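Pasting as-is:
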Amino acid sequence: MSLISIIDYGSGNIKSVYNAFNYLCEEGKKKLIVTNNYSEIKKSTHIILPGVGAFQSCISGLKQISVREVLEEKVLNDKTPFLGICVGMQMLATVGHENGIFSGLNWIKGEVKKIKPTINKLKIPHMGWNELEFKKDTNFIKELRKKTNLERVTAYFVHSYNFFLENESEKVVTTKYGQEITAMVSKSNIIGTQFHPEKSHNFGLAFLKTFLECEEF
């Protein structure tokens, strides 16, 4: 049986993430837990890292529950499927520039910087529905295409910072908000989304279902 673990480190959006995955797990008879326990994470077949709030406070939360070592063992060594959502994606970066400069997990090299104001004076934070642009047809995206029409897809965003990747090939999906916004990153067994799939209705559920079922990202 699959064991899907949502990492609990004090982030504020676990309930909506849990509810979305719980719906899918009831369909597929998979076990879903919210945990910060070493032994439970060690047994996990899928790991989800949600995130709401500031980059630095989320990184500090991870440090306080002492799970980085087991996460790196599972994700980097064992290649366990991993999904980071919103700040959970941003924390994959090398550094974040929010209220200072803070080290991230450095699993996907790059920097997280504030969205720049534009001549259109778009509101920051970027909040609401935006159309996605698919840059690469990874295996994950190909599997997602089988579940939904990706010709014109919108997803829900709430954020003020943008992930600038060192390796552009790891940028899979973007959106536009006065500038190009990194909406999804992918590297080996690791994916991250700036948008919230758990709040993105049918497309979001198809995305999460693909995460649970896809054998290669």
